[in-house]
Design brief:
Blueprint: E1 12-14, E2 20-22, H1 26-44, H2 55-72, H3 93-107, E3 113-115, H4 120-143, H5 150-174, E4 179-181
Antiparallel strand pairs: 1-2, 3-4
Length: about 180
């Protein structure tokens, strides 16, 4: 399989199922941002501490992002073409919330707004969080004109919360304080 096909040289591409759209289509903006988020998580994996978040957990999230990307890359009328494994994430919202609670306990109470930074793991978790929030906004925008599985927005919303909790717990694991915002 060749990496290049020349099919996109005109500024258009195929969605799953063969529907051709412009590369600036809201669907591509949404699942392209999921790809960017997935890349951010790949970097985050290099900087996390195992007691905070394991590489296996981050791999699971990356796998789930592929599922969400497949859902976004498939128009509603072509959903029946997706295999069952490409229709549902593996990490439930309830389990993600339970891990957020665990991470929040590790990090302790917040006493101020937290700025991105501190340890490398925390900084990369914050980068991933902001990309996640952008992906969430783009999916919501897409949902104004197209049918989108509501689980996609819910998952991304909770994932952004989880990444914030990861960032704070990473600072604790590294022995670094959160960078707190204090009004001047």
């Amino acid at each position: 399989m060749k990496i290049y096909t020349r099919q996109g040289d005109s500024g258009s591409t195929d969605l799953f199922g063969g529907v051709r759209v412009t590369k600036s289509h809201p669907r591509l903006m949404a699942y392209g941002t999921l790809d960017e988020l997935n890349s951010s998580l790949g970097v985050l994996r290099l900087y996390t501490h195992d007691p905070v978040v394991s590489a296996a957990c981050l791999q699971r999230v990356q796998d789930d992002l592929f599922v969400l990307g497949a859902l976004l890359a498939t128009p509603e009328e072509k959903k029946d073409l997706l295999e069952n494994k490409m229709k549902k994430t593996t990490w439930s919202i309830a389990d993600m919330e339970q891990d957020i609670d665990r991470l929040t306990t590790l990090a302790g109470p917040m006493t101020a707004f937290v700025l991105p930074g501190g340890s490398p793991g925390a900084a990369f978790a914050h980068v991933a969080r902001t990309v996640c929030r952008r992906a969430e906004r783009q999916v919501v925008l897409l949902s104004h004109g197209e049918i989108i599985d509501p689980h996609v927005v819910e998952y991304l919303n909770r994932l952004g919360d989880w990444l914030f909790a990861v960032a704070r717990a990473e600072n604790v694991a590294a022995g670094v304080s959160d960078v707190e915002w204090r009004p001047q």
